[in-house]
Amino acid sequence: MPVLDITLKDNALIMIHSLFLINNAGDLFLEKHWKSVISRSVCDYFFEAREKAVEPDNVPPVIRTPHHYLINIYREKIFFVSVIQTEVPPLFVIEFLHRVAETFQDYFGECSESTIKDNVVIVYELLEEMLDNGFPLATESNILKELIRPPTILRSMVNTITGSSNVGETLPTGQLSTIPWRRAGVKYTNNEAYFDVVEEIDAILDKSGTTVFAEIQGVIDACVKLSGMPDLTLSFMNPRLLDDVSFHPCVRYKRWESERVISFVPPDGNFQLMSYHISAQNLVAIPVYVKQNISFFETGSSGRLDITVGPKQTMGKTVEGLVVTVHMPKVVLSANLNATQGTYNYDPVTKILVWDIGKLNPQKLPNLKGSLSLQSGAPKPEENPSLNIDLKIQQLAISGLKVNRLDMYGEKYKPFKGVKYVTKAGKFQVRT
Amino acid sequence: MLGMSANSVSYNEQGSVESGVDAAQENSSIPGSFSSGGAAFSLFSADCKKNEDLKEMLESNKESLKLEAMKRIVGLIAKGKNASELFPAVVKNVASKNIELKKLVYVYLVRYAEEQQDLALLSISTFQRALKDPNQLIRASALRVLSSIRVPIIVPIMMLAIKEAATDLSPYVRKTAAHAIQKLYSLDPDQKEHLIEVIEKLLKDKSTLVAGSVVMAFEEVCPDRIDLIHKNYRKLCNLLVDVEEWGQVVIIHMLTRYARTQFVSPWREDAMFDENNEKAFYDSEEERKVEQTKPYIMDPDHRLLLRNTKPLLQSRNTAVVMAVSQLYWHLAPKHELSIITKSLVRLLRSHREVQYVVLQNIATMSIQRKGMFEPFMKSFYVRSTDATHIKTLKLEILTNLANEANISTILREFQTYVKSQDKAFAAATIQAIGRCATNISEVTDTCLNGLVLLLSNRDETVVAESVVVIKKLLQTQPSQHSDIIKHMAKLFDNITVPMARASILWLMGEYCEHVPKIAPDVLRKMAKTFTNEEDIVKLQIVNLAAKLYLTNSKQTKLLTQYILNLGKYDQNYDIRDRTRFIRQLIVPNEKSGALSKYARRILMAPKPAPVLQSAFKDRDRFQLGTLSHTLNSQASGYLELSDWPAVAPDQSVRNVEVVEPVKEAGAPALRKSKTAKSNEKFYSDSEEEEEEEEEGSSSEGSSSSSSEESVSESESEENSDDSNKSSSSQSEKSSSESDSEKKKKTLKNKKLQQQKPDSKDRKQKNGNAVKVESRSESESGSESSSSESSSESGSELDSDSDSGTDQKKNTKPKPVQSKPFIKQVEKKEVSLLDLDDFSPVPVTTPKSSILSPNLLSDLQGLLISPTTSALQASSPVFVPETSHELLHRMTGKGLSAQYRFTRQPCIYGNSMVSLQLTLSNSSDQALENIHISEKSSTGQNIHRFNAIERLEPQASVTVSMGVDFNDSTQAANFQLCTKEDEFSVSIQPAVGELLLPITMSEADFTKEQGKLMGMNESSATITMTPENVSSQSVNRKVVSVANIGVIPSSQENIYRFAGKTVSSGSLVLVSVALKDPDAVITINTEKTVIGSMLLRQFKTALTNSCP
Q1: What's the rounded Cα separation, in Å, for the pair A230 and A224?
Q2: Does the pLDDT at position B785 exceed 80?
Q3: The MHD domain covers which part of the protein (chain A) (predicted)?
Q4: Is pLDDT of B862 > 60?
Q5: Which of A167, A177, A385 sits opposite B103 (nearest CB)?
Q6: Complete DSSP assignment for B163-231
Q7: Is the pTM of this model over 0.80?
Q8: Which of A280, B56, B132, B261 is exposed most, by the fewest CB atoms within 10 A?
Q9: Are B729 and B736 in contact (CB under 8 A)?
Q10: Is B1081 at the interface with chain A, CB within 8 A?
């Protein structure tokens, strides 16, 4: 059989050989091969690792099998398992798989098993375009959208009636220009550009409320709908704040290096312009403080919990969307608490206590207080659970970063420009 | 179904019964067979029914039906169902006009062609036609599919198609061709030679679209043909920023491998420096000195790679960032490594999987270079929500980073982790504490006590792990810890984890002499429970019994006998064996008399303590960022990173035709000079040409990012085309040069002039100075040949430095005004000269230490910047007298310190800024042992002064030191120590002090300035105060702000200054143009941050009325 001969020789370097999508229950619901077919039994090694890991998050991203390597990511309750045969930078594959997931999200609104199953043809077409012979070909969403149009309800109806297709008839212009991220001939009646400065505070506070570690992770998300080939320049009032930045490929590195301005020809639509990092060396303002007292009693299989949240450095803004999440020790059976504001919910299966506070009122601080009942006979937990805080502050970038101005060159019209700031809690943890 | 052609029916039947391949083959032999149809259908009715209507739909005339059918088929393929029996029906639609239908057919074809080879051939003609389509997209997709059909018979067709596509006008098609190369190669490796030809051709391609793909093909087909890269090396480096992100990763990895075979190691620099600084100086042998002090000079191509990959650290693609990081790790001089730290730490915010890989790499790095990540220690703090493997990796890194200074912080952090609900992680933390305890002797006791406390923990795994770690720790220092052993014996009853029990028993046995009372009692207890213990515990019981028998046989003889008897009949043969062995060994009888004499020595031999080390200890044998590194075992297809060559291969292969300095290292200079001379004469032309090309294209690249992209590409293409041509003609023969047009020639001459000093510089490094005919006037000062005497060069030195009118000769250590061009000078004479000239600054340190610095500066100060070697350093025009306070006498308990910038090239390191420190003792008792503490907290490389043994009251001493500020104004923090005290101090350099002056001609200045336009230029207009307008005052103000040299100017109202940054040697060009009453200050430099900071300072200096 000639076929066999080929597969035997077929161990040459190829980056990504096959992709399997597996849901949380362990069903393999999609497979795609870029070269000869690899039996799905290779996934048994993955299932083995999955079982051992207990939590999906603990599955090792790189798994070795006798003949292949499996590199997987876990996203939106789906495992993307890729099969690799030879040496390849693992981050290359991981980054690509995430890009695939993002593309699905972009196309279908969400990246879930059902949407992928519903759009299996588009998924296949996308995978075909994104990877050629295992090497990434077109991963830029703007180009893909020219090659393969995303589904819309209207279009799918029209398609079924007229039999017209959702594959682009024309050559993607971006792929060939030096600006691969932007298509040519963009036209809008309302030209607008919006920038969202989103900052997340990552922090670890210790028992006494002092900051063990805090830093700010910021991103600037952009939604640019401008006709033609606009060349934009975004400048900041205080660019020196930005410690470490990474950019969308459209940004000119050198301009940033020399003038601390962001100069770019934007992709069309939504994209992340840059992300930045304000490190622990700078003082990071912590918007809330938490007074907590969680204790478990030696006898009586019970414990007490008392949490109060109050504003700290909020720069005069209101803290909203405040949520406190506690991962309780396994022995906590139930919680009998009383919240002065918001609602709380304790899930005895996952052992997660969620206290949804909402808006923080500085005049009347929210408090959650009451008793916890433990499994009788079990020893009291060694460690108090740490609290994870979620919050949101509108109209504020906690680092103090401010956009100075946005200038447009290359086009004549006057665009509408808008900047929004928001601060959120990232991985914000209070140890108890 | 009956309406269908006979052929397809038979395929279908066969296909559903057997595999698709068989069907195809069988069919070709029995065309039109109807056999065994019915049975098969009835068996697989459900599946086939479905497929039946699919077939019907495909046969129909309606596009929409066909499309619908194809969509369903793709759905089947996606689910992993076999749809191969539909092949004939599908393949008919390959020529469909409907693009979507066509695409789906392609998807199908690629999937099944291999299994249905004969039928697949039917589609080939369609693709061949499409290869000639005027639409590039169609050409490209045809090639993609054609090359994806894995049918050996079409190899020649594919080969032809690839060759044609490789010369296609559309870069997109050429990119597809590059991809197709790999596919063809995997299909038929015999085509290798032909494919290499195509790769060679495509490597020359200038499109950023193609670069990544062709390098990928190169890596697969012929990774060993490094010679193909030579000529394209610089182009790849320069294109890199504009290549798409995936291509960047591949190219960076390839270039890492390439660089390791082509350049000499930049790492020996540090080692050599420390060793040789002193030695070389005292050494009187001329030759040896030349050899030893000849510092490492980075190949400009090596530098080019580092420089051009650096901006990619800001890529959003984590794979690119990692690729650049590993490139720096494997290629960059150690002191430049720190720039990757931030970016790697940034990646930790990314997805869990990214974190995993990055943390692994950081773990490996942090073993070798703690300093890199120490400032970011807190980024590795563990959160309770991290995945377990992430937690363990962070723990690993924290342990690696632990040192005397931060151990208390780390241990405090570990205390939190030990209490973690994740018990596996808690156990790992205990191991980490154990490692810290062994590595840092100061905290061993603290850790031990902490671990002992953990023994009363309620959790079993925690206790067990503690016992195991304590055991290891005690082994390192057993004598002092009998208390702990006793404590453990007490806990023994409550510990159930076998490993922990076994460990305690082992400890008892090993140190039974320290606990003579307890050990026999433990043995007694164990004798009772022996049968119920786990195997490893039993083995240790036997061990303990044997050891006690030897040391304390009176009490334990019977117990031992009893235990040995139990062991003799144990179910486990290991235990039976061990028992038998021990009995023979310790109990003397007739047979084993000889051995039992040594039993004590055998069993009680001192045992080496286990080394607790990182699991990442030897990971660095793999290239970072690779799969092999992640797995810690070699993955198939892993390409080993070669060691640096001892001697760099010929650089000229990259078109630089200059003799590599390293090659001639140590050769007697004068003897060789003759041959070298002629060579260099010949080569120098083409080298300059090449340099020029490189410069040109890189500046082109930079301008492309500022101006319209589309334009710049074509421009640069044109440009490099041009220079390519000229350079190749150059290297062929210098005479061909004369044939070229006049215009070109003049241009070249200009280049020649401009580049001359560079080539000269190199020659001098070789120890062969050569006279070069054509050179610009300004360089006349440097026209010294090797034979010229040192005194002559000394006088040159004087004449050269007189440009600075404000120079204060008496306070300035003259000799440090470095002269690059007097490499050959005899050291002794120079040093004498130096001494004569040396200023009578109050110095009490031994003379030799003053002498050596100056001397060395003469030798080395000027080899500072390989990248901008066209320029010569000169002496500072102005040295400010002002000194800054480092330590006030109140805070320093009587010790005060002041520092000033000497503005001289630093003797301790090429990239250091030299400083003079004046220490005074204002207390009433002598201060002893004044020195800078070993550890510098901010990570700058600091050259400390020799410790001052004694400083009398009211006395002061001046010492010099060097700090590598790495071209940033970040303060250098360090500890100034006396015998009793330690004071934290910091030096904050003004931006102007990070520079060294250089001289160049006005023409060169304009030329260089031209290269640093665009974003490298910053300028400002200011209004001058009247008293500042004179040339004197402008000069004075500028040079007082920054340590730069004055360039003679032919225009009246324009003042020019030039300098370079100390660390990286980047040019800094300053010009001030006066237009009454305004003045325009322009600064051109690659170091834009420095540029803008300088600009601000100049602005303030020139607008303030008072100096």
Answers
A1: 10
A2: no
A3: 190-431
A4: no
A5: A167
A6: HHHHT-S-HHHHHHHHHHHHHHHHH-GGGHHHHHHHHHHHHT---HHHHHHHHHHHHHH-TT-THHHHT
A7: no
A8: B132
A9: yes
A10: no
B356 at interface of A, judged by CB pairs closer than 8 A: yes
Q: Which of B77, B117, B385 sits opposite A2 (nearest CB)?
A: B117
Under an 8 A CB cutoff, do B709 and A136 touch? no
Contact yes or no for B353 and A73 at CB 8 A: yes
Q: How many CB atoms lie within 10 A of CB B984?
A: 12
Which residue of chain B is at minimal alpha-carbon distance from A40?
B80
Residues of B in contact with A160 (CB under 8 A): 64
B60 touching A, CB under 8 A? no
Contact check, Cβ <8 Å, A431/B342: no
Euclidean distance between CA atoms B59 and A173, whole angstroms:
35
B879-890: per-residue pLDDT in tens? 777 778 888 877
| Residue A151 pLDDT level (bands cut at 50, 70, 90) | confident
- In this prediction, residue B783 carries a pLDDT of 41
Q: What is the rounded average pLDDT of the residues B168-191? A: 88
HEC string of B784-827 equals CCCCCCHHHHHHHHHHHHCCCCCCCCCCCCHHHCCCCCCCCCCH
DSSP B516-557: TTHHHHHHHHHHHHGGGS-HHHHHHHHHHHHHHHHH-HHHHH
Mean pLDDT of A335-340: 90
Average pLDDT, chain B: 72
The strands making up B982-987's β-sheet, listed across from edge to edge, are: B948-951, B927-932, B972-977, B982-987
Calculate how close chain A gets to B534, using CA atoms only, in Å. Answer: 25
The pLDDT tens digits of the residues spanning B796-806 come to 444 443 444 34
Q: How close is the nearest chain B Cα to the Cα of A363, in Å?
A: 32
**Which token pair is A342?**
């918001």
Test B74 with A120 for CB contact under 8 angstroms. Answer: yes
Best of A5, A29, A92, A409 to substitute, by most chain B Cβ atoms within 10 angstroms, is A92
Closest CA to A361 of A393, A394, A319: A319
Question: Is the ipTM above a cut-off of 0.90?
Answer: no
Contact criterion met (CB < 8 Å) for A204 and B713: no
Whether chain A has a CB inside 8 Å of the CB on B408: the answer is no
Strand ranges in B944-1087 using DSSP code E only, listed in sequence order: 948-951, 956-964, 972-977, 982-987, 995-999, 1017-1023, 1045-1047, 1054-1061, 1067-1075, 1078-1085
Closest CA of chain B from A296, distance in Å: 15
Q: How far is B378 from chain A (nearest CA, A)?
A: 6
How far is it, in rounded angstroms, from Cα B290 to Cα B298? 18
Q: Which residues make beta-bridge pairs with A23?
A: A78
Question: Average pLDDT, stretch B232-254?
Answer: 89
For A48-100, give the secondary structure using H, E and C.
HHHHHHCCHHHCCCEEECCCCEEEEEEECCEEEEEEECCCCCHHHHHHHHHHH
What is d(CA B533, CA B375) in angstroms, rounded to the nearest whole number? 49
User: B100 and A383: CB-CB below 8 Å?
Assistant: no
Q: What is the mean pLDDT of residues A292-303?
A: 82
pLDDT more than 70, % of chain A: 89
CB spacing of B187 vs A6 below 8 angstroms? yes
Report the C-alpha gap between A133 and B141 in whole angstroms. 13
pLDDT in tens, B410-446: 888 888 888 887 888 888 898 888 888 888 888 888 8
Contact A213 B379 (CB under 8 A): yes
- The one-letter amino acid at A123: V
Contacts of A208 (CB under 8 A, 6+ apart): none
| A contacts of B389 (beta carbons < 8 Å) | 58, 60
Instruction: Tell me, yes or no, if B981 comes closer than 8 A to chain A by beta carbon.
Output: no
Sign of the torsion formed by the C-alpha atoms of A34, A37, A38 and A41: positive
